[in-house]
Structures are given as C-alpha cells and as structure tokens.
Design goal:
Elements: H1 20-30, E1 41-42, E2 48-49, E3 74-75, E4 78-81, H2 88-98, E5 104-109, H3 117-123, E6 130-134, H4 139-147, E7 155-159, H5 170-184, E8 190-191, E9 193-196, H6 198-201, H7 207-224, H8 232-237, E10 239-245, H9 249-269, H10 274-277, E11 281-286, H11 298-313, E12 317-319, H12 332-347, H13 362-384, H14 392-411, H15 434-439, H16 450-468, E13 472-480, H17 482-493, E14 511-516, E15 521-526, H18 528-539, E16 553-557, H19 558-567, E17 571-572, H20 580-587
Helix pairs in contact: 4-5, 7-9, 7-13, 9-11, 9-13, 11-12, 14-17
C-alpha cells in the first residue's frame, strides 16, 4: 500500500476573522440588551473569569513562557510505612504494582531508620527502579544507607522539607540537606530536595497561596543552603516540587503552568539562567483535602479530574490515592483502581501524546498569567514578613482563614461536594464502622468535607443508640466553628419564609460537640481547656500526662457523662424554635 499523503496544515481561511469588539457586539445582541459584564464571575481566589476569551487576549501576555515538553509522565503509587515498620509488606505491594502498570513507587516513611533498604534493593533494584521517599528526620543517614546497598545509581527523589514541615532544629536539618545534595549531585536521575507543596493544598490553600508559599520555601533553601562546597546552581538542580491536586480542573492546570513560569523568575533572581529552570520536576499527588467518607465512590470522579489536570498541566509524575484511603486500610480493589487510572489516561485517553496541550488556549494562557501574577504577590508578601520559616505564623493564619471560608461556603451550598452537601444518599450504608472511625487518631479532620461528615456520622450513631435504648451516652468533638456550619446548613434546608436571622452560633475560640443520650441529642460548645479536662476524666488519663490527645468520640455510662458535661461547664447551642433533634433529623433527611 502506498504511503498516505501528509495532511495539509489546518486552515479556516474561509471564515472571516472577528475582533474582540465584534464578538462582544454579537454577545450583546444575543443577550437582547443585557450587559455582557453580567456574565463575569469571580472565583474564591479573587480571579475574575470572563464570559469568553479571544485571540487578542494573548497580545498582552509575556512570550517565551517556560513549559514542560516531556510527555512521559510516571505513574507512582504511594505506600505508607508506619512507625517501627521495616516496610517489607509495602515493598512487596510496590513490586506487585510494578508488574501491573506502575512506573515506580513512592514510600511515605514514618520511621526512616526502621525501613529495610537492603530488602528494598533486593526486591526493587535501586539503579533501575524509580523510587521516591518522604522523610521527616534522619534524612542524611537514610541516603547514606541507600548508597551503601551497593546500588550503582539512584533513580527517584527524596522529600525532606524541614522548612515547610517546620521540623525542629532547622540548622541541623539544613546541614543534613547539604550533605544529601553533596552525596547525590553526581546522580542526574535523583532529586534530593523535593518541596512539600501538599502541606498547603491539604489545608485548603488556594492555588495562588500554594504557588506563593512553595516559592517562599524554595527561596529559603536557595538563600541558606549554598556554601563553599555547594553552589547555588547545584542546589537548584536538586529541586523537585510535590504539588497537591484538587478538583478545580482549569485552575489546577494553570497552577502547574504558572509554577514553572515563576520558577524561572525565582532562579533568575539568584543569578541562574532559564536553562536551570527547565530542569525542575513536578510530582503531583491527589490531595486529602477533597476526599470524602460519605458516598466515597465519588472520590473516583475527583481523582480522575485531578490527575487529568496534572498531566495536562505538565506534571512529570503523578500519584493517585485509593478512593477509600480515609477510612480503609490498603486493599487490592481500591489500589488497583488508583493504579489503573493513570494507565487509562495514558493508553486509552492518549493524554501523553501532546506536549503542553493547554498552550495557545486563550482562557488557560490568560489564567496562567493571572495566577502567576497573584502568586508572585503572595510570595513577596511572605518575604516582606521575613520569609519562611519566620513567617510560618502568617502562612498558617491565611490557610486557616481560607479553610474556614470554604467550610462556610460548603455549609450554605455555594461550594458543592457531591454526595456530602448535595445529592446525598440518605440511605447510605457505611462499609466501615462510624464509631471506630470517629475514635481513630488517623481520621483526617483537616479535609473540606470533615465538618459535614462528622455531623452526619455522629447523628447516625445517635439515632442507632436511640433505637437500641442503651443507657450510655457519647460526646463527639465536631471541631472549631462547626456549630456555625451546622446552623448555615440547617437554614439552607428551611423554606425561605422560615429562615432565621443568621447569628454567631457560639463564642470565638470554642469547640463544638454533640452530646448524645438514648433519649436526645444536644449540640453544645466548650473551650479547649474545658474539653481537654473533660476528656481526661472520661478516658481516666492523669492530668500530668503530656502526650494525651483527646479522641473525637468519647463514650461512658449516662450518669457519668451527664455529670462530667455539667461539671466542666459545657453550654448548649440552640436554634430558636427548633430542638437539636429537629435540626439533626432534618440534616439527616429524616424530616
């Protein structure tokens, strides 16, 4: 068969070119006199999104922006390894994953000293297997142990970021980082300095904050790590950034592209050429912030959106978390789904066939520029406040403020979490034990859905207890400001004519709790000190025990619980005209 003729260049010359003004006039005509400006909307990040974008929008944007042309992104499942765990089971799971579509493995190590690197090298030869590690302390010793395995090279990366993780004794940790970079600078396929951008994403930070705060951490390393033996260019060459992903599709694409652009700007400030910025690698992981325990299969939709945004935005590697990781131990079913998702996007959707597919999009190019400008302003503000880690208080306060705003938007329905605050499955049967989950120290309370979840789970337990008529009581810690979330969620369910004036639900700084007895449930609030003393009494923990962390769920016999609640001064939160049971029943879909 003769070779097919090459396709001619794509052309639409038969269509007349239209200016932005012409498009605006057509929109105005179609709106029948309405103002086209009414179609604009402003995102929670403060970005104004236009109703349409035209080619002229690109004329004022900077040219020659740094983009990633590498389409061979890696699929790296994550394996958590607990304290005092040699990691053999996680290593075996990683070896199996490599036979089933994974391109490497990423180990989150609680106890790096206990991790068996010899066994790792035996099962996953380090010279040929791409492996990432997350460590909080003892990083230099760990890298020395990796090199002592006899591996001729290392492929992968180390995430050790004492500035972002505000690890104690920073001078010692920085010395460890200098040692690590010195030990690995001859290994071109190993990145010794991966920044923990997920810290900001998993606490609800906006995409603008995430970029700005990551740059602030990077600036600290570029300023403090260089020495007589280690140049600033060698420090820059060691960088990788781990970013957390959320389901805001276009903004996540823009986030990764803006981060690459600003990386070149940051390195230029340290006297490094653009070529140095091209070496940056981005490792994108699905975040915990957007994950839910209610209707958890909806998490599959979220991680698909997040992963697509990552690879289209130019990530070099992705890690997709199992949809049930918030409440289940690792299992084959959910791990297989997570591992196969990038494979499907690569092999069936073909998302690895085009480099920087967002290039030239009027909307995405404009959005990238807007995010970059706003993020640089955030970076400059942190630097003006002393930089990291000195300005960590400012960073945490801004993250807290944004998270609280999102909680309120979720409560009043402005921000939708499918299955949690919209389209709930009122007949949902949990495939986990709500009581055990609420008692678990591992139950992640930093997620967007947590205030809604903990209320639904706590009230489900209350109704179960009421049906069983057991003479026991429970107190569930709902969190800070959660009574306000409950109030806003409840008001949204009332007919418009019955909605009450919105009031502060409890004093600033107090904790919200649900006191559940066989007969009734009462929403209450207490100061952190009151709740702490109460929890120690119920759990029979001595007052001088320094490491006690009160669990979310506390249970005791009814008389003991009533006495303790009264003794420690808990106060009831009421909604005028409605009992707590009325409020909870409506929120549970029982009214």
């Amino acid at each position: 068969m003769a070779d097919a003729l090459p396709s001619p260049p794509l052309s639409f010359s038969e269509f007349e070119s239209l200016s932005t003004a012409a498009w605006q006039e057509r929109i105005r005509r179609d709106l029948k006199g309405a103002d086209p400006a009414s179609l604009k909307w402003t995102t929670p990040e403060g970005i104004t999104v236009q109703p349409f974008y035209h080619q002229e929008a690109l004329q004022n944007l900077p040219t020659g922006q740094l983009t990633n042309t590498n389409t061979n992104w890696l699929n790296l499942p994550t394996f958590a390894v607990g304290a005092a765990d040699a990691g053999h089971l996680a290593i075996e799971r990683a070896a199996d994953a490599l036979q089933r579509g994974a391109d490497g493995a990423y180990f989150e190590l609680t106890d790096a000293a206990a991790f068996d690197v010899a066994y790792l090298h035996e099962r996953l030869p380090l010279a040929s297997t791409y492996v990432g590690y997350s460590i909080r302390i003892g990083a230099a010793d760990f890298v020395a142990r990796l090199l002592a395995t006899g591996a001729t090279a290392l492929r992968g990366f180390l995430r050790f970021d004492p500035v972002t993780d505000h690890t104690a004794d920073l001078p010692h940790q920085l010395a460890d980082l200098r040692t690590i970079i010195g030990l690995t600078r001859h290994l071109p396929e190993f990145r010794a300095l991966t920044l923990n951008g997920t810290f900001f994403a998993n606490r609800g930070g906006t995409v603008i904050q995430q970029i700005g705060f990551v740059l602030a951490a990077a600036s600290t390393y570029l300023e403090q790590l260089p020495s007589a033996e280690l140049s600033v260019a060698e420090v820059a060459a060691a960088f990788q950034i781990q970013v957390g992903l959320n389901p805001n599709y276009f903004f996540e694409i823009g986030k990764l592209r803006a981060l690459r652009r600003l990386w070149a700007t940051l390195l230029h400030a340290y006297g490094l050429p653009t070529e140095a910025a091209q070496a940056l690698r981005l490792f994108a992981t699905t975040s915990t912030w957007s994950q839910t325990t209610l209707d958890p299969h909806t998490n599959l939709l979220r991680v698909t959106t997040e992963t697509m945004a990552a690879v289209l935005g130019g990530a070099d590697a992705v890690s997709v978390a199992p949809f049930d990781r918030i409440y289940q131990s690792p299992n084959e079913f959910s791990s297989r789904l997570a591992r196969n998702l990038p494979v499907i996007l690569r092999e069936e959707a073909g998302l690895n066939r085009v480099a920087d597919p967002a290039a030239g999009s009027y909307y995405l190019e404009t959005l990238t520029d807007q995010l970059a400008r706003e993020a640089w302003a955030v970076f400059q503000r942190v630097e003006a406040a002393g930089g990291l880690p000195g300005a960590i208080g400012l960073v945490l306060q801004e993250l807290h403020s944004v998270a609280q705003t999102q909680f309120q938007r979720i409560a009043n329905g402005e921000q939708v979490i499918v299955g949690t605050n919209r389209f709930q499955n009122q007949q949902e049967q949990f495939d986990y034990n709500p009581k055990r989950l609420l008692r678990s120290k591992e139950f992640d309370s930093t997620r967007a859905a947590y205030p809604s979840e903990v209320l639904r789970l706590a009230t489900a337990l209350h109704f179960q207890r009421r049906e069983k008529k057991r003479r026991r009581a429970a107190v569930v810690l709902l969190g800070t400001h959660t009574n306000q979330v409950i109030l806003e969620s409840f008001l949204r369910l009332l007919p418009a004519q019955e909605r009450l004036a919105l009031k502060a639900s409890h004093p600033e700084g107090t904790l919200s709790v649900l006191f559940s007895t066989p007969e009734a449930a009462t929403l209450m609030y207490a100061t952190p000190d009151q709740f702490g003393h109460f929890a120690r009494v119920v759990c029979r923990v001595p007052v001088d025990e320094p490491d006690f962390i009160p669990p979310t769920l506390l249970t005791a016999d009814l008389a003991t619980m009533q006495e303790a609640v009264s003794l420690f001064g808990f106060r009831e939160f009421t909604v005028e005209g409605y009992s707590t049971d009325d409020v909870l029943a409506r929120l549970q879909g029982r009214a």
